[in-house]
């Protein structure tokens, strides 16, 4: 299962490297201070009018994750992206589900690395308008894997934001490799929740919330849609 998903993601990335030549005349931004859009997978915007729905592979997952995602979902709606938490449906982590669904499941080490989860948008949606994606949380968080409460909460929010079209805003070294936690910070030292690995607020009251950098990224996804005349 894990292998199928990893191969599928890699294949998508490869395909996109060949097909990501911009075809739109409209100018839009795919990177800014503390945010980056997953343009290498062909996603440049989110729909300003459609409602995206988070669904879960099982009822146990729905119950487990709904309260943990709720504060971020409120924030995302406040930015203008319509996102609701839905119910249970079959999730095949190797294949995108219905349009505008962000499907959540659990897998053991979906990235092949202890403690890492995976999230990605469905690649190459028409006109670059994201249609949701797939999230696989590492199942070992719930079987004794040592993880700080804020790291867990931030990760649970980080991955669906990938599915909506946000990428890691990390700076890169000379070889193009992301510098771990190499991201812009607030004056209080908070880095974007999309910064890899383990970005986001570290207090009990703020963990699991988007920072201003992340909401700016969502706003850019909306702005890009409007720049293309997408309503
Ligand atoms: Zn990530």
TrEMBL record:
<dbReference type="GO" id="GO:0008237">
    <property type="term" value="F:metallopeptidase activity"/>
</dbReference>
<keyword id="KW-0732">Signal</keyword>
<feature type="signal peptide">
    <location>
        <begin position="1"/>
        <end position="25"/>
    </location>
</feature>
<protein>
    <recommendedName>
        <fullName>Peptidase M10 metallopeptidase domain-containing protein</fullName>
    </recommendedName>
</protein>
<dbReference type="InterPro" id="IPR024079">
    <property type="entry name" value="MetalloPept_cat_dom_sf"/>
</dbReference>
